[in-house]
Amino acid sequence: MDSLIYGICLVLGLLFSLISAIAGHFFGGDDGGDVGTGGHAEAGADSAGLPGISFFSPTVLASFITAFGAFGLIFTRIEATRSVWLSAPLAVVSGGAIAAGTLWFFNTMFKKTQSSSESRVATVVGLPASIITPIPENGVGEIAYVQANSRYTAPARAEGNIAIPVGQPVKITRIVGTQFFVEPTQ
After folding, report:
1. Quick one: 103 and 126 in the same domain?
2. Can you tell me the distance from the alpha carbon of 93 to that of 95, in angstroms, rounded to the nearest whole number?
3. What is the pLDDT of residue 46?
4. Is 8 helix (H, G, I), strand (E, B) or coil?
5. Angle at the Cα of 161 (from 159 to 162), degrees rounded to 5?
6. Which residues, in sequence order, are CB contacts of 178 under 8 Å at separation 6+?
7. Are residues 18 and 108 in the same domain?
8. What is the model's pLDDT at position 120?
């Protein structure tokens, strides 16, 4: 009976993973909407605002259930751990370790990929930039700046509400909401 429960857990975990992979491939396209987490149930955010997954995400739970079933089957085949009183706790601990490893792996991967490709807005103040769309007096234009070897553009206003022509070198002085404030450097 114990082997049946472990087998069911193993099969259900593997089926969930397989169906998720196939469904994600065929139905996981971008629908143009922004849910904040990209529409992924497993997405969350850590204190740095970078994407990640939680311990209760479907991916982590499926890895726990699959590992619980697999290790349960292994422990019931070993004479010393054949009893359900030994195999079940060992399978829970083993499944928890695999789930924790899955959680660590995905969160580490998300942090590394996100931190290398996304601009950290707080560190752009003081950076040089150039005007790519003229800023009219009391109006909004556009700047381009380079941070961490990546080029970014942003809407910009001039400090003092002055006009700044295209190509003029400027320095980013502050950011309010989504608008950058700049002042000429020459």
Report:
1. no
2. 6
3. 41
4. helix
5. 95
6. 154, 155
7. yes
8. 66
Q: What sign for the dihedral angle of Cα 114, 118, 121, 122?
A: positive
Alpha carbon distance 145, 140 (integer Å)? 16
152 φ/ψ angles, rounded to the nearest 5 degrees: -130, 155
Please give the pLDDT value at position 157.
95
Say whether both 104 and 156 belong to one domain.
no
Provide the domain count of the chain.
2
Instruction: Give the domain-ending residue among 117, 146, 166.
Output: 117
Residues 34 and 125 in one domain: no
How confident is the chain (186 residues) per 10-residue block, as mean pLDDT? 89 89 67 42 43 77 93 94 93 95 86 56 86 94 88 92 93 89 90
Could you list the residue range(s) of the whole structural domain that residue 49 is in? 2-117
Claim to verify: residue 80 and residue 125 sit in the same structural domain: no
Q: Assign 182 to helix, strand or coil.
A: strand
CA 29 – CA 26 distance, rounded (Å): 7
Contacts (Cβ under 8 Å, ≥6 apart) of 143: 129, 130, 131, 132, 153, 154, 156, 170, 172, 180, 182
Q: Do 45 and 88 share a domain, yes or no?
A: yes
